[in-house]
Fold each of these.
Amino acid sequence: MSPKTVPDNDALLDAPEHVLSTLEQDGSRRWLRPRLSTGKWWHRRRIVAYLLMVVFVAIPHLRIGGKPVILLDIAARKFTIFGKTFLPTDTMLLALLMLTVFVSIVLITAIAGRAWCGWACPQTVYMEFLFRPIDRLFEGTKGKGGKAKHQLSFAMQILRFAVYAVLCGFLAHTFLAYFVGTDRLAQWVRSSPIEHPVAFVVMAATLGLMLFDFMFFREQLCLIACPYGRFQSVMLDQQSMIVAYDPGRGEPRKKGRHTASDGAGDCVDCNQCVVVCPTGIDIRNGLQMECINCTQCIDACDDVMEKVGSPKGLIRYGSQDSIAGKAKKLIRARTIIYPVILLALMSGLVYAISTKSGFDARIIRKSGAPFTVYPDGTVSNEFRVRLVNRTSDTQIYSVTPDDSEEITIEVLDEDKLQLKADQSVLVPVHVKFKSSLTRGNGHKIVSATIKDQSNNVREVEFSLLGPGS
Ligand code: SF4
Ligand code: SF4
């Protein structure tokens, strides 16, 4: 039997083509340290990024009409969005809201490409404008990219980890505030984790995931984990705005300063668009799924063009058609159909929210005996009034039959008619009426008026059962 031979590294075959921008030839992770290009787009993105960070931290503290701007209280199954509270029973409203968000994303992508990825995605915002600057500070690269200027000592690595942990801890607490509210969070922070173990585990898991992502996973999230990057290929068309290299102007590329009379294109093959790319790709290879439209290559190339005396914009915002010299088409199927759908959804949503009463009410028959007949001929039906207070104040409700001469409604527990904000109850009631009311077919549809102290009124129909003859 011949002995097994293990090929040495030199015997390994080279990959026939470049597979992933973050993989070395031997399959190990290629760590990216992009150079920073501080051009006009970077300045604009930086303003947007810091504004978004402030908004993210501020939202849980803001109130509209006494209610949080956003509170996704999963435990209580209540979702407050822009001061409006949605309950699990608001299926239609929640469905409209989700569809509106979904169609908005599709429309924005069809028009502006991956603008979300480059300008507003938390991954890009925090990675490029918070954590990478921290790395540059510690490693002394000052945005020059490439290898760290000095190897970090163990103590400095611990210190950098501590800075990351504090920032991620703060972000994890802010994230948790969206689900539990700032008041409860402040209370929990001051008490032992044993008193609120679930919330503590959620916060610790979020902190751990953030540390893993921003310290280790980084651009991999965009490249292999984010579904939006995958979907973009079906959401974009030839007219969608993307960050693109103009091969008609740039090719044939030629190293070094040159003029058009050399027969060369404007690209001086300086590789600057590649070394600034946070996902490690070469934009000159055309539209790629890895491109998050961060505009760093535009800034880098504009800088080079300025230095070699060529017009800026070799890499620029444009559509695939405009780069190929074709006319811009503002009116196309996507830019008509999506806005029409979006308008319809938003109108439905606004109408549904604006016409929603300050409370929900239903009168539900209690299961069991359908009716009781008393010796004096009075008939009694048992019901439960389901009330949901949707206002931000405590309310006391009244329930009055519309035909008070024939019907009386007796509330068995008057205290239950007082509801705090967003509270819901079932109030047991007895409805009494003369047996003549149901004579004939044994039932009668009647109605009651339910009012709160803020003059919200609802008319609720219900069916009485009684002797038919
Ligand atoms: S930065 Fe511009 S000039 Fe330099 S390689 Fe990229 S496209 Fe060519
Ligand atoms: S190719 Fe350009 S726009 Fe795309 S991710 Fe790289 S640097 Fe950003």
Amino acid sequence: MILLNPGPVNVSPRVTEAMLRGDLCHREPEFSDLLDAVRTKLVRAFAPDGDWAAVPLTGSGTLALEAAVSSAVSTGRKMLVVENGVYGARIREMAETHGVDVVVLEWAWTERADPARIAAALGADPAIEVVAVVHHETTTGLRNPIEGIGRVVRDAGRLLLVDSISGLAGDPIDVEGWGVDICVGVANKCIQGVPGVGFVLARRSEMARMAEIPQRSVYLHLPRHFAAHEKRTVPFTAAVQVLYALDEALDELLEETVAGRVERYARAARQLRAGFARLGLEILLPDEWRSNSITTIGLPEGATYESLHDHLKADGFVIYEGQGQLGATAFRVANMGALSVDDFDRFLESLGRALA
Ligand SMILES: Cc1ncc(COP(=O)(O)O)c(C=O)c1O
């Protein structure tokens, strides 16, 4: 089955086989070596410059994101949340659930966030300590302007938290150069590992700052995990086999290089989008805002998502429905994972037959 949903993705046989390295107790030195290796490779891949640390966490991307959101804001300060899709809205929900005061700036789902509006909001409210934004809004496939947002956040002396769960390794992001302070990712999307581990990348100065904030959660308190990781251990049982797979997936990524992976995804997206145009399909977003890994397409007259999905699945392809308000009018095709030009060609042929 070829997965054209935005994670979990098809992984290489090498990554699948890594899960069979053998049973391992997370209190043994072999696990400490695995944890160190994964942490080191995450920093080498995504934050090679500056003084960064990686904190892998057992759970899906939401868990890692909630750990970052609930750990990042000092008592009495606020989080500004950029909302132009489902995942921005989820950050707001997380902050509110943990009793963090939130200022929300909303845009339509088809609009990019505007750094000037964020700068104005920061100027008006000195209590805002952290700005949180989604890099790649998986809702629509829209890429937010992280570099420009990073500039205004840094100029205002505030901190930037980025959900790059569907961005890292698929779209460009320079956490050090663009002024990101905390960045959240997951194993099972563009990194091409399996589901079960997310991670937080943060400047070490940020890890020290967060350690001073009273904890809002037991499991999700990021400094607790970081402190244990620095001692080569974990506070709670880790998903050992998922970490084996992530370790192997990171080796693959570093061999391909992050820039090489981003370029491969960009090429795949171009191939798919040219095919969609040949089939007369309409893409939701303007070209320059689209990510390298998701395309949201209007459902053609008379077609239903269910019929399209079922036709394609019978040919071995899984597509993804439109999210929320787009459910009735659009569907999504992702190009994440260990897939080839030939896989995408065969998919476009199958899509042509399904539409006919
Ligand atoms: C941008 C973004 N944030 C958060 C999540 C949540 O991740 P998970 O489903 O792994 O919990 C997703 C999942 O698609 C996502 O795309």
